[in-house]
């Protein structure tokens, strides 16, 4: 029935058109524009449209940009590692040790803190981690330390702690979903065949939850690299990241083309790292199956 | 597995630490945000309505959030319906592209829209923030509505056609009531996201700051922070209430379409 098929295709396309066009004009066009801007230059308020590689040369020759980029990758990498490693046991706990009818309550409890003001949450981490902060006063109070810890505020550590908090549910949820999909009879089979609990976990549960872990890694790593608020509030001068420089270029130095160049480079780096990660992971999985 | 239970409790403490501290400082009788607490006061809450710039920014944010919620939920309904019901060319790439803002760093979304506005010489204002927010809220709405639409039993709609209802009246009488909880949940979630969003508003706002942009400016002045804490407490209480309503709506929707509860918003 070709007419039916045609009308179904037509209906589908008509329905998808509004969101697709919206994404085209507000995402595809702007991304193309930022790419174009990165090849232009700016004198005060006038933009020179002659294509040039000047911005890219500057981005690669000026050590500050390279340093910020490297730091952003390292911080985002540490945040991802910390978040996923800390999140896995929670996802495992909720999936395997919480009664089925209480699982959604747990997931709800885990997601609640993240729908509350991001700015205020980050600011409160500053209060927790500060010299006279909550953590230091309580540790001093119970006598664990003799003087306030200073390595936890206004540096990269503070950024990692705060972001590991901010992105927790983004890591927990995909891992939880992949754990939920595991057929429990496989675990019984492993135990019947003489594996102990730990070996059954390492050889059955962990490999089967890899897709969730991969999703968690990507969903944490990609947005963190471009975070602006956290490095600015708790990072101090040594914890600033590339997004802070992009903002400075756009809103302070009035150099939109340089800001665009840094944005393009940041996107390129994120894409390359994510692709390498996914590729290595595929190879590893295939290697296991063979 | 007692150690796992203990770990889960510690982890929840880590997750809730900022939210537990917030009301403590909001009711604390001191401008210094640190322990020990010095006494109980409600003066910071009383100052909120007496700060005109703050009241104005709340109004601006609520206005933007309402429009954003309506727009992104409408776009989300279109995409989720198309995704669940129809087959058409390039379906996966189109849907994937619409979902892209979910993983794109927000600063990239913000500066790229800013660049277009600069290039076209368009002024910044409330509507530019609305457009940016709609872009990032739509994928969340789609994620919520997807489960609502895919849990829908197609035989209910077919029955309605067989009984002589038109396509539109079927949608209105059968489909819409069944997915309504999903729609309510999508409206509330996108409202909450827009209300809280900072980076896009920071770049795209004109002369009228949204609430987070206003708060960002206040964080530099230590004497203003207790009022920020008081406001934060109200906001947290409000979002928890909205989220509970959204969660109830979501569960009711799953029950109505006869699906199984798999938990979570995402």
The CATH topology annotation of chain B reads as MetI-like fold
Query: Any low-confidence stretches of chain A, pLDDT <50, length ≥5?
Result: none
Kindly state the mean pLDDT of chain A as a whole number? 86
CATH superfamily name of chain B? Answer: MetI-like
**What's the helix-strand series of chain B?**
HHHHHHHHHHH
Number of domains of chain B: 1
Principal-axes geometry of chain A comes out as globular
CATH superfamily of chain A: MetI-like
Helix-strand makeup class of chain A: mainly alpha
For the termini of chain B, the CA-CA separation is 28 Å
Largest sheet of chain B: none
CATH topology of chain A: MetI-like fold
Q: Which two protein chains have the largest interface (Cβ within 8 Å of the partner's Cβ), and how many residues from each?
A: A-B, 87 and 88 residues
Which structural class is indicated by helix and strand composition of chain B? mainly alpha
Helical content class of chain B: over 70%
Largest sheet of chain A: 2 strands, antiparallel
Q: Please provide the count of β strands of chain B.
A: 0
The spatial strand order of the largest sheet of chain A comes to 1-2
Helix/strand order of chain A, N-terminal first: HEEHHHHHHHHHHHHH
List the total number of helices of chain B: 11
Report the end-to-end length of chain A measured between terminal Cα atoms.
43 Å
Key structural traits:
heterodimer, A: 290 residues, mainly alpha, MetI-like fold, two-stranded antiparallel ribbon, 14 helices, 2 strands, B: 266 residues
Please tell me about this protein's structure.
- Chain A has a single domain, classed as Orthogonal Bundle (MetI-like fold), CATH 1.10.3720.
- Chain A is built from 14 helices and two strands.
- Chain A has helices spanning 2-37, 54-61, 63-97, 103-111, 118-129, 134-141, 156-166, 168-180, 184-192, 197-208, 210-225, 229-234, 242-252, 256-289, and strands spanning 41-43, 46-48.
- Chain A has a two-stranded antiparallel sheet with strand order 1-2.
- In chain A, strand 1 and strand 2 (46-48) form a beta hairpin.
- The two termini of chain A are 43 Å apart.
- In chain A, 43% of the residues are buried.
- By secondary structure, chain B is mainly α.
- In chain B, helix 1 packs across helix 11, helix 3 (52-85) runs parallel beside helix 6 (126-150) and helix 3 (52-85) crosses helix 10 (211-218).
- The radius of gyration of chain B is 22 Å and the shape is globular.
- At the A-B interface, helix 1, helix 3, helix 4, helix 5 and helix 6 of A face helix 1, helix 3, helix 4, helix 5 and helix 6 of B.
